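Look over this entry.
=====
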Amino acid sequence: MLEAQEIKDNWTKYRELVNTSFPTRKTQLNKLYDEFEERLMFMPASSMAHYHNAFAGGYVDHVLRVIDCAETLYDTWKKMDADMSGYTNEELLFSAMHHDLGKTGFPGQGNEVYQTETSDWHRKNMGRLYKHNEKIPFTMVPDLSLFLLHKYNVNMSWNEYQAIKIHDGIYDDANKPYFISRSAQAKLKTNLPVILHHADHMAAQIEYERWRNHKNGTPVKTSEKSKTTKSNALKNLAESNPDIKESISDIFSSFKED
């Protein structure tokens, strides 16, 4: 679980990375993140308690951890004399930062992916803390990630596109031809997709272990279904974290004032 200040600090760090790491694309990226700011700041990284970071602010916390894991793995691979050519550090950071962007959903009010589960039975018996929005089209996360980047005119290299597209590794059968090659020619030309996949898996495993070891990842029960307004949706999403001491409006207002 995250305290209100941690959610705020993570988002500040996240936005600073956009401006410092992607100088030629920060204008387009900032437009995207300005429009999705409230949703992204408070959304979880998954829907089930035993998955990873299924709590308010969990998405940004997860992405920052993936970035850290990717940089650490890059250094490890380099130390072990792996071939690190063919891609840049910016491409590594960009891919890590946007691999799960599709979890935010589609533009527009009410088009988020994650909605707080209002069924106490599902929360108690299945650990399903968030449900998927049935009003939006079904899509695989990498596909929606790439769609959103394209929609906001964020240019990508092939390395970035491919790494985001196949970051789930062979957990997605569609990725098998990339990871289980039958010829030398078909093998990946760089190790970027492999490093990103390992970084994502490492971060998710660490987050699962934190939930397993501390057992404090269960939001408080909801008493009634919230109305489908923007403010209530944000309040419902963030206040499902019992550790938050401030209301969402207070957190967001103080963030804007800074």
Observations:
- The first helix runs from residue 4 to 21.
